[in-house]
Amino acid sequence: MNADDVSVKIFKALGHPVRLQIVKFLLIEPQCVCVLNQLFDYSQANLSQHLKILREAGILENRKIGVEMHYSVKLKGIEKLLAAMDLTAAEYFSTLEF
Questions:
Q1: What is the mean pLDDT of residues 23-45?
Q2: Distances (CA, A) of 93 to 21, 38, 82, 87
Q3: Which of 51, 52, 93, 94 is most buried, judged by most C-beta within 10 A?
C-alpha cells in the first residue's frame, strides 16, 4: 500500500455524511459509543458499521473503559484535512452563479 492508496482509503471513509459527522464530533472530544448512539439516529448495527470503516481507515481508535467502548480520532491530521475541506466547500459555493 502506498500513500495514494492510504489517501483514497481515508477519503472514501470520510465520503459518507454520517461518518464525516462522527469524525467532526469526535474531534471535539473522545466519546463512548453509547453517546454516539444517542446523537445519531441510526441503529446500533448501522453505527457500528460506520465506526468499523473509520477504524479500518486508520482515522479512529477505540479502547474499552469498564464495559464501555470509547472512540477517539487517531490521525491528528484529520482536523487540518477537514478544515481544508470546509474551505474548499466555501470556495465552491462562492463560484456558483445565482
A1: 91
A2: 20, 32, 16, 10
A3: 51
Q: Which residues lie closer than 8 Å to 37 by C-beta, 6 or more apart?
A: 44, 47
Confidence of residue 73 (pLDDT cuts 50, 70, 90): very high
Q: What is the DSSP string of 19-64?
A: HHHHHHHHHH--EEHHHHHHHS-S-HHHHHHHHHHHHHTTSEEEEE
Q: What CA–CA distance (Å, rounded) separates 48 from 73?
A: 16
pLDDT of residue 43: 86
Q: What are the two backbone dihedrals, phi and then psi, of residue 68, each rounded to the nearest 5 degrees?
A: -100, 145
Report pTM.
0.90
Q: Which one, of 12, 3, 2, lies nearest residue 56 by Cα?
A: 12
Task: Look up the CATH number of domain 3-95.
Answer: 1.10.10.10
Q: Where are the domains of the chain?
A: 3-95
Q: What pLDDT, on the 0 to 100 scale, is given for residue 50?
A: 96
